[in-house]
Structure formats: C-alpha cells, structure tokens
Amino acid sequence: MVPSGVAIIQDEVRELVRRRALDPVLEPDATRRLVEEVVADYLDRAAVSTLPPLSVVAFRAPRIVLPVMESEGGEGADLAERSPAS
User: Fold this and answer.
1) Confidence check: pLDDT of 40 > 90
2) Domain-embedded: residue 86
3) Domain count, the chain
4) First CA to last CA distance, the chain
5) pTM beyond cutoff 0.85
6) Residue 21 sits in which domain range?
C-alpha cells in the first residue's frame, strides 16, 4: 500500500523534529513553521514526481501538526527532563 501524502509529510516532520531537537509541545510556533516548510517542499517534489497529491483538506496545518505533536509530546517531555539546563 502506498502511503498518503499526509502520512509522508508526518513522517518527514517527525524526523526533522528529532533532528532539530524541537519539542512540539513547548515550541508550537517553530513546529508549525517546520510543517509549512515540509508541506511546501512536498508540493514542489510532488509536482515533478509520482508522490501522491495532497487534497485541499491536507493543507490545513492542524490535520498534519496535531498527530505529530501528540506522538512527539511524550518524547519531547522526556528529552527536556534529561537536558542539562533542567
């Protein structure tokens, strides 16, 4: 089964959240900007490849951001507790 465009974007956002050590719960604005960047990049790539297209509904950031924030929230909290600044 081919993943949907939203699923691909969510996976990419999760990876970048981890790489950039973002905490979506504590940094929602940065997370939203990251999602906007990933969606824009995805649209560019989808225009010249066989990536699944995004529906108009998929452009609504909460549909993409909320699942990422919910799944990453626990990990982000754990990372914040382990940070030397705490």
Assistant:
1) no
2) no
3) 1
4) 43
5) no
6) 5-81
